[in-house]
Amino acid sequence: MYNGLVHLHSALRWVILILLIICLIQAFTKNEKIAKTSLWLLISSHIMLLLGLFQYFNSEAVGFHMAERLGGFGNVMKDSFARFWVVEHISAMILAIILITMARGRAKKLKFGLAMWMYIIALILILAAVPWPFREGIGRPWFPGM
Q1: Quick check: 98 and 119 in contact, CB under 8 A?
Q2: Please, what sign has the CA dihedral across residues 36, 107, 125, 92?
Q3: What's the distance, Cα to Cα, between the start and end of the chain in Å?
Q4: What is the DSSP letter of 72?
Q5: If we measure between CA atoms, which residue out of 11, 91, 9, 18 comes closest to residue 46?
Q6: Cα 29 to the chain's mean position, in Å?
Q7: What b/e sequence results for 29-61 when a residue is b if at least 16 CB atoms lie within 10 Å of its CB, and e otherwise?
């Protein structure tokens, strides 16, 4: 079951990235369909958050238990692999989801400029915190399980 949740978490990143880019384009072009698209983005990102938090607190390989295994957060900060999985990934993703949530409120009220900037910052945070395959030491496959 845990392996399936990891694969779902990894696959859902593509849904979020696609919806985020669509919302950005809709905000830029002032398309009123952003109200519906931003809702799907909000739902997807919150499901992703729940899956990620489950993994963070239940995985022996990454997350909270890694900090315990390494003897605390001081040792985590010295190890780039551990720092990414224990601190950087979760922090950036939570910030991105907060921005997506705030942007959804603006998009619903058709305040395109504010929504667009929040979506841009969220996209940058997500792209920086995803363990892309080309990232040495922390990379994950493009499509896990395939």
Answers
A1: no
A2: negative
A3: 17
A4: S
A5: 9
A6: 25
A7: eeeeebeebbeebbebbeebbebbeebbeebee
Rounded Cα distance between 69 and 127, Å, is 28
> Shortest CA distance to 13 belongs to which of 105, 99, 119, 129?
129
Q: Which of 15, 17, 20 is CA-nearest to residue 107?
A: 20
Segments of the chain scoring below 50 in pLDDT:
none
Q: pTM for the full model?
A: 0.90
Please tell me the distance from the alpha carbon of residue 37 to that of residue 20, in angstroms, as a whole number: 9
Residue that has been written with the tokens 């040495």 in this structure: 136
Place of tokens 């792209």: 127
Which amino acid makes up residue 87? V
Domain boundaries, the chain: 2-129
